[in-house]
Amino acid sequence: MLLRMSTLLLKTLREEPADAEVPSHRLLVRAGFVRRAAPGGYTWLPLGKLVLDRVTEVVRDEMAAAGGQEVSFPALLPREPFDTSGRWTEYGDLLLTLQDRRGADYLLAPTHEEMFTLLVQDMTSSYRDLPLLLFQVQTKFRDEARPRGGLLRGREFLMKDAYSFDLDDAGLTSAYDRMRTAYQQIFRRLGVEHTIVAAVSGAMGGSASEEFLAPAEVGEDTFVGCTACDYAANTEAVVTPAPPARPVTAPAAAVHDTPGTPTIATLVELANERRLGGRDDWAASDTLKNVVVVVHHPGRTDEIVAIGVPGDREVDLKRLDAALAPATATLFDDFAVRPDLVKGYLGPQGLPIRYLADPRVAPGTAWLTGANQAGRHATDVVAGRDFVPDGAIEAAEVRAGDTCPACGGGTLTIRRGIEIGHIFQLGRRYTDAFRVDVLGADGKPVRPTMGSYGIGLTRAVAVIAEQHHDERGLIWPDAVAPADVHIVAAGRDGQIEAALSLGATLVRAGVRVLVDDRPNVSAGVKFTDSELIGIPRSVVVGRRLMEGYAELRNRRTGDRQELPLVDIPGVIMGRLG
RNA sequence: CGGGAUGUGGCGCAGCUUGGUCAGCGCACCGGUUUCGGGAACCGGGGGCCGCGGGUUCGAAUCCCGCCAUCCCGACCA
């Protein structure tokens, strides 16, 4: 491959686009790899397309090596399969739907569980046909409320999605482990630093689930690590260690007048002032905060639910949603229509609505909480005695310094990350929905169990740019660079001809070459463009051409080396391995 | 969906408060001359229903109303 910049569709920008915020977005636009074409949609320009294709090839290669077979489905799908799986409603507003001329419902697929399941249903009939690992590389659509970060979150993006079909749990576990290993290999080849964290499966359904997160300030996921062990989890998946049940030692609950204390802070202050229960050391963590939310069950009517968390913690709506999936929750604030819910003075005792409590609200624990009367709170309200939650829920915020749920010894640290891959064991949710069975060796039907494995390819390009750049521009890893060598002709005394000739020599040896053969462009411009574009090594054919020398540069280290022109191909071949 | 901001040649912006030589600047682009290893200089040019619709006015990029779009924060989000 030899690309000539004199004819390449490329325009680098000296100034940053006004709408670009994150580094990857700024650089990819400035360097002429992509440009915005629609809200949440980007055009891949020649250089960007080369990178995207190389990323895709790495993924394909590793998927094939892991036994995957590539197929391709339409992106435009009819409604019926998604009705069968329930996702037409469960996926919510994020599903990009449309109608054809007859008014029939269609969607632009966000993922393809249904279609893969149907394909396997159609084409398999015996246990001998399994296991299967199928994948595709395809454009996905989501009606994102707010696309952001350039390529990081679009409404249309390229994704590799893969699905495994196995006869039993052991097969699923094996496929899952194989994918996990393949993903580590993929991200290693792509040069993407990442952490594997325990995750929740969300609207997809299923059980075991892990995310591959690229640590980054601009990331939208928050995850924890442990100071003592190797535990790592998305905050949505952090499980709170429940204290053991303890015997009830507290006296009977007592109601106190606590006027003007609708918040935890005001309550604690007043409780200490008045020495409620004979104490003046009340802390927010002694109180039980009860937050009312509206739970939206897909396809059913909304439900009003109270969530109880220790008063020193906020309810984390992301964690709450994850715990309620596929239902979602929003804060309830229409207390006018529910006079039986006393805002600011809610307690779990005798609440007229369903009550879900944080695991820390263990049987035997005593709390200072609302008395369900305006201006009154109750002390010594004991879980298991004065109230019994309708269930436990992981809704309280996770904080740095919390005890690690895995080892119990270390504490948690918190970081942000970009989700670049997600693997999980779906189980039989979809094979059940579509009643997929194959005949087992004993002649009885067996229902296959599935795994689902995704990598955001568009996003991967952005993450690579996010992790590999400096103040001058991009620095692509060898495996995905748009070219292996950037030859810069810095001069007009035959430098362009010499550069093209060197390029031709390298191309014959299988090297990908970009030549800056633009006439009448100053050397300075070519150097800055070269650094912005970020091809890992460049050859400057310049003023020492007459002596037969050129300069080899390393974009990452900045190293420069004057070499005889004739030696350059050999040196480059050596370094490319 | 809430909060904030912004819409003026391809890109980045000024002009709006105080309506009238305001349609302008930088980059990019075209022609010419010079320059040629770190975003060159000079000369000459082309390109904009000032987001859309309505209103006020003799006159609107500028004031008023409505709408749309984009970006940022939050909500939302495999």
UniProtKB/TrEMBL annotation:
* A Pfam family assignment: tRNA-synt_2b
The record ties this protein, via InterPro entries, to: aa-tRNA-synt_IIb, aa-tRNA-synth_II, aa-tRNA-synth_II/BPL/LPL, Anticodon-bd, Anticodon-bd_dom_sf, Pro-tRNA-ligase_IIa, Pro-tRNA-synth_IIa_bac-type, Pro-tRNA-Synthase_IIa_type1
Keywords associated with the record: Aminoacyl-tRNA synthetase, ATP-binding, Cytoplasm, Ligase, Nucleotide-binding, Protein biosynthesis
GO: which molecular function terms?
ligase activity
PROSITE patterns for this protein: AA_TRNA_LIGASE_II
Work out whether the entry's keyword set contains Ligase. yes
* Domain spans labelled Aminoacyl-transfer RNA synthetases class-II family profile: 35-477
Q: What class of enzyme is it?
A: ligase
List the HAMAP family.
Answer: Pro_tRNA_synth_type1
Record text about domains: Consists of three domains: the N-terminal catalytic domain, the editing domain and the C-terminal anticodon-binding domain.
**Member of which family?**
Belongs to the class-II aminoacyl-tRNA synthetase family. ProS type 1 subfamily.
Protein name as annotated: Proline--tRNA ligase
Question: Which species does the entry assign this protein to?
Answer: Actinoplanes palleronii
